Amino acid sequence: MSVEMIAGIPERLLHDYAEAAVRHARTHEIEPGEWFSEIVGFEGLWADGSSREMAEADLLSAIPGWVELRLSAGGDVPVIDGYDLNLPLAG
């Protein structure tokens, strides 16, 4: 049985991290039918949609790519609800 990995992180763990992060999202209607969602500490990550649910679903789907980009660039990602995806460098 093979485990799918994204940026060296098991896909299931990354999905659980993303779900935990979205629970901390700040989502608000910026004008009728246009919603904006972001998470404090997740610099450069945001989403929008025609409803709260759509904005948060878009945010959820964007998190894995955002994490992969941050980690591949040598950055850290926020620890959220006990999920720490920052891997120590082998050395």
Which strand order spans the largest sheet, edge to edge or round the barrel? 3-4-5
Give the amount of beta strand, in percent: 15-25%
Sheet/helix structural class: alpha+beta
Shape: elongated
Text of the CATH class? Alpha Beta
Supply the number of structural domains.
Answer: 1
Pfam families: UPF0150
Topology:
Elements: E1 5-6, E2 9-10, H1 11-22, E3 26-31, E4 34-38, E5 46-49, H2 52-72
Antiparallel strand pairs: 1-2, 3-4, 4-5
Helix pairs in contact: 1-2
Describe the structure.
It is a single chain. The mean pLDDT is 92. The protein has two helices and five strands; from the N terminus they run E-E-H-E-E-E-H. It has a single domain (5-71), classed as Double Stranded RNA Binding Domain, CATH 3.30.160. It has 91 residues and is an alpha+beta fold. Helix 1 (11-22) crosses helix 2. The protein has helices at residues 11-22, 52-72, and strands spanning 5-6, 9-10, 26-31, 34-38, 46-49.
Keywords, please?
TTHA0281-like, 91 residues, Double Stranded RNA Binding Domain, alpha+beta
Quick description:
It holds the Pfam family UPF0150. The protein is an alpha+beta fold.
